[in-house]
Amino acid sequence: AMRRVLLLGEGNFSFAAALCGAQATHVVATCYESEEEAAGRGGAARSIRRLRDSGAEVVFSVDCTKLKEHFLPGKREFDRIYFNFPHCGRKAGVVKNRQLLAGFFHSCAEVLAQEGEVHVALCNGQGGTPADQPRREWHNSWQIVAVAAGAGFVLSDVHPFKAETIEGYKCTGYRSQDKSFCVEGALNHIFTRGTAPLCFTPVSCQTQLGSQKVSFQVPQVLVDKINRGFLEVNSSHPVRTIKEKLSAGLSQAFPLQNISSCLPLLHHGHPGAVCHSNIFWITLSPGQAPSSEKMSQGLADAALCSCLGQDTGENGQEGCPAPKQFYLRPSLLPHAQAIIEKGAFSPGTLQVLSGPVFRKCRVIPHSMPAFHEMLVVLAVSRGTENSCIQMLVDNIKTTMNSLHQGTSGGKLSISLQEAGSFGTELSDFAAFEGQLGEIRHFLCVGTEPERPGSCVGVIRAAPGESENRELVVVSASLNLDLLAMLLCGISDWRMLWTLDRRFLRQFPEGELRLFKSFSLYPPSYVHDVSFWLPDGEDFDEVAFHTLARRVSGEMVVSIQLRDNFQQAGTGRRSLCYRVTFQSCDRALGCREAAEMQLHLREAIQQHLGVTLR
């Protein structure tokens, strides 16, 4: 197909003339001036003639902020739009030029093909990104990434603009004078469309509870995380690849049985020792609550044991209101325990369970409200558990190292840390695992030999049940999402859940590769919020962070406590938090971020019972 290319703000048309010989490309070259003004420029008349002779279109008096008006509806879709060295002319300052770019990007959104690109060349320092050397102060730059984000574009690539390699190209300069721009160190910024924002329509989901199908409304913060099918047979997602490779490695050392397909998403009853503010409580859709008789029968059928052997009747506890007897599974461990209690395993056989699990957590790096857990369970004779743990870990190490060798050629540092030696600085993942049952070792993986790795898994060993006193049940729980991030060089966990198709395209047929982001230097927006706490009440920080995740559609990357103030005399406490909004995969403009901040202020007043200051 013929590629349609639009050039804006051409001075002497030498850039357009250099492009017009390209194969299968239809060039539309334009400038802001009238034909007479433009043709008077040195060499312009010759370039215009050459363009027209080669079948290109040349259009004059084109305003880059009103592109739709210059082209008929059928002729509007361009695959590429070039704007080299935009400038308002004369001594226009950064604010004027930002406004010009804002108008230009909004206009591009109306005439660019869905997968098209916008190329903007700027002088060194103007863009305000880390690619500029030296970099200007942000307020003194054109802030091109934030300006483009306001129109739905992300910066997907940036590279030097090499004027000397473009045959016959001569940079002109401001339209009001023939003084050329300084092109040394100039950069070409390539923008593409970000995916559309998530629509916040309520989603309901079905799951099997015993012999019954029940449906429930998915918590708002998880709507894009439920039923994504990353571990399904036809998926090429890195978490599935890693799970398959680990399973293949383990199956060479142990007989292996996969039991992942039909595990219910909901648990019932009391979550044992788990802190209630970490749990996503669920209310079944009206008319869905199974009768208690059917329920208890169903629970036995589904190996849906009340978590950690606690009594299912204990619902009167604080933070877990009686009607909310259901919650999204925070771990696959109870399913494994149910299998063990039923004696439905043969000693020496490795049982592998995998699937997404859900936990409310704080907004800090590597802390995720949903991730894919792989749980490996093995019953062994008492006294052999240590050598079995070593075998298991060695096997996982070998697989991980060969995968890492394939993506980045380096060696991983993988270590087992004794549970007692871990100090107080546990990651949220490790701290939560500690609530589920005694941990023997933490499995830590790092990409740099000298630095301590992050905790990606835990290993437990528990004595078997009454008839199986001679057995010890060894289990290893792995966070597949953290492993995918380490192996593929993905710095932000949210990228694993992106709806942008460019993510999975980088892993054809599940091949693991180093990930290259399609959204570079995403802009971030900082807002402070402070409020009075209700008298004598503790503040649930996890609830606050979960609310921020929900209101922003997971666009909050950091929440820092800035100030904790107690008023003399009244004893009232006030907290001030700094909230940073930033997306990893789609365009987030300053307007949208400001709206999120307003929604957050309303929501904390409404849901957390605090008084805004």
TrEMBL record:
SUPFAM superfamilies: Anticodon-binding domain of PheRS, S-adenosyl-L-methionine-dependent methyltransferases
GO terms, molecular function: ATP binding; phenylalanine-tRNA ligase activity; rRNA (uridine-N3-)-methyltransferase activity
Keyword Kinase among UniProt keywords: no
Sorted UniProt keywords: Aminoacyl-tRNA synthetase, ATP-binding, Ligase, Mitochondrion, Nucleotide-binding, Protein biosynthesis, Transit peptide
Biological process according to GO: rRNA base methylation; translation
InterPro entries associated with the record: aa-tRNA-synth_II/BPL/LPL (IPR045864), BMT5-like (IPR019446), Fdx_antiC-bd (IPR005121), Fdx_antiC-bd_sf (IPR036690), SAM-dependent_MTases_sf (IPR029063)
Keyword Cell inner membrane applies: no
Cellular localisation: Mitochondrion matrix
Domain FDX-ACB per the UniProt entry, residue ranges: 520-613
Main subcellular location of this protein, as a coarse class: mitochondrion
Catalysis: reaction(s): tRNA(Phe) + L-phenylalanine + ATP = L-phenylalanyl-tRNA(Phe) + AMP + diphosphate + H(+)
EC number: 6.1.1.20
Family annotation (Pfam families): BMT5-like, FDX-ACB
GO cellular component, one term: mitochondrial matrix
Family note: Belongs to the class-II aminoacyl-tRNA synthetase family.
Protein name, per record: phenylalanine--tRNA ligase
Species name: Loxia leucoptera (White-winged crossbill)
